[in-house]
Structure formats: C-alpha cells, structure tokens
Automatic annotation (TrEMBL):
Residues 1-60 form the HTH lysR-type domain. The keyword Transit peptide does not apply. GO terms for molecular function: DNA binding; DNA-binding transcription factor activity. It comes from Clostridium thermobutyricum. GO terms for cellular component: cytosol. Belongs to the LysR transcriptional regulatory family. Keywords: DNA-binding, Transcription, Transcription regulation. This is HTH lysR-type domain-containing protein.
Length: 297
C-alpha cells in the first residue's frame, strides 16, 4: 500500500471532492483518481461513491474504516520524521509556562549548564492550559506543566515535582490585609486582577466566582504576571495567584483561601514519544536536582 495514495485518500475524504483534493495537493485530478482506484483494487472494496447529481463524493463504510486507520498511519509517519529530524539537530523543545519559568525553573539552570545541556534546549513559552496541546501535537518534546490536580492522562507521562497552592493577593494598603485566612465569598464586593486566558489562574478565578455566584465589581486583565502584580501592589484590585509567585514580595501580602486550591508542577512527555538520550538526561537532571532541593527543605 502506497503512503502517498493514503495521503490522497485522506485529503479526498476531507474535501469530499476530487477537484478540491487535487487543488489542495497541487496535483492533477487524474492522479487522485488513480490513487483511489489503486486502493480500491488492493482492498477489493469500494471506498467512495461518485455521484453525478451531486458534486460531493460519499464515503462508504469501507472508506470510513480505511480513513480512520490511514489517519493513524500518517500521524505515526509524521512523528517518525519529526523524531529523526530532532536526532539530527540535537535540539530539544522544552515548554515552560511563564510563571513556572520565572519562579520554579531557575533552580535547575546552573545544573543544566554544568552538564552542557543548556545549548540543546529551545524554550517554548505558553500558559499551562496551552502547554498540554503543544505536547500532544508534538510541537514540544518536554513540558513543565501546572495543573489543579496530579496529571492523570492516558496520553501523557508525568512526574510530580512540586505542590503549591493558590492564595489571595492584596496590596499593603488593602483593607483585607489583616486577615490570615479568608473565604472567597468575602470578596464579593472586590475588584479583581487576573491573567488572561491560557493561564490556570484565570480558570481558578472564574471557577470561584461561579461557585460563590459572585458578579465582580470589575475585572482587570493582565497579559503578564509582572503587570498583574504591579496592579495588585497599587491596590487596584485583588488577585488569585500561586504562592511561590508572590510570597517574597514586599509590596504584596498573601491571604490563605479557607478552602485551599492546590497547584501541581510536573515534568511531562507524550506517551509513545521517542525520547533521545539528551531528553532523558535533561529530565533526569531536573528530577534529581528537585529531589535534592526538597530534601534540604
């Protein structure tokens, strides 16, 4: 069975037209027709029904079966190409959400430099919610990911590195500053500072607002955490952030949530993904260094 024939068939299924498939593939229409004829002859079954009254073709039951398998085959072939290309380049794409990159990852940099791996790493930055998509689509090789519970996904292999929690953040002049613990419902009359979509912080705030049926006075959206922290410090509103990002700031105070919301940081790869020796070494350095630091703490 010819791989190119499968590519043509998959495109035909997508466009439902021999003409459109040929245009999309930049080939002649007879080339598509010949590919489908070869597949039908080899399989001994009709894959598509050509209708003269309707320009769109119909996919038969046999065609649906083949397309499902063909998609898997083409995906695996693309994965092979990417992995071999990666071997030749010796570059590893490491995904790091901005907050994890700023407040958690720096402790590993010197170790990676000492072992000569920092030059092999190409950093890709995106929020934790986007990071999963990048990992599963093969756009990154390794990810440091934040999640609201330990990762339990059949498509992802992960190792838990750290557990943190979300806290209420207020400026030093805020009227809530004397509270050590607060129920989120007490914030019903507050203005909020929140990071934009793509960050778990945004999802957490939305969930809390919905749970307690709070219609906020106003919500200010910040693209970067430094901007969000500056707005909180200026007492423009209240924020919900992970503790490690704000606990050492002099102009922001943290208040524990009465019902704690945990935040987990894990290092992850896609299951079935071929890990090169460099990838394995990088992951091992991060895990070993993290365990060493945790023992000290």
């Amino acid at each position: 069975m010819n791989i190119r024939d499968l590519e043509y068939f998959d495109c035909l299924c997508e466009t439902r037209s021999f003409t459109k498939a040929a245009e999309k593939l930049f080939i002649s229409q007879p080339s598509v027709t010949l590919a489908i004829n070869r597949l039908e002859k080899e399989l001994g079954s009709k894959l598509v029904i050509r209708s003269h009254s309707n320009k769109e073709i119909q996919i038969t039951e046999s065609g649906h079966i083949l397309r499902k398998r063909a998609e898997n085959i083409l995906h695996e072939i693309n994965e092979v190409k990417l992995e071999i290309k990666k071997l030749d380049s010796k570059k590893i794409k490491l995904g790091i959400p901005p907050i994890i990159g700023a407040y958690f990852f720096p402790k590993f940099i010197s170790e990676l430099i000492q072992n000569g791996f920092i030059e092999n790493i190409e950093f890709v930055q995106a929020g934790s919610l986007k990071m999963k998509e990048l990992l599963l689509t093969g756009q990154i090789d390794i990810a440091l990911m934040g999640s609201l519970e330990p990762i339990n996904d059949e498509a992802i292999k992960s190792h838990l590195l750290k557990k943190d929690n979300f806290v209420i953040c207020v400026g030093k002049d805020n009227h809530l500053i004397d509270n050590e613990v607060l129920n989120f419902s007490k914030l019903k009359y507050e203005q909020f500072i929140v990071l934009e979509d793509g960050y778990l912080h945004n999802s957490v705030l939305k969930r809390l607002l919905k749970r307690d049926k709070i219609e906020p006075q106003k919500v200010y959206y910040a693209h970067e955490i430094q901007t969000a922290k500056s707005l909180i410090a200026a007492n423009l509103g209240v924020g919900i952030m992970i503790k490690m990002a704000v606990e050492k700031m002099q102009d922001i105070s943290t208040i524990e949530l009465e019902n704690k919301i945990d935040f987990y940081i894990s290092i992850a790869t896609k299951k079935g993904h071929y890990s090169t020796k460099i990838e394995k070494d990088i992951i091992k350095i991060i895990i070993d260094k993290n365990e060493e630091l945790e023992r000290v703490l």
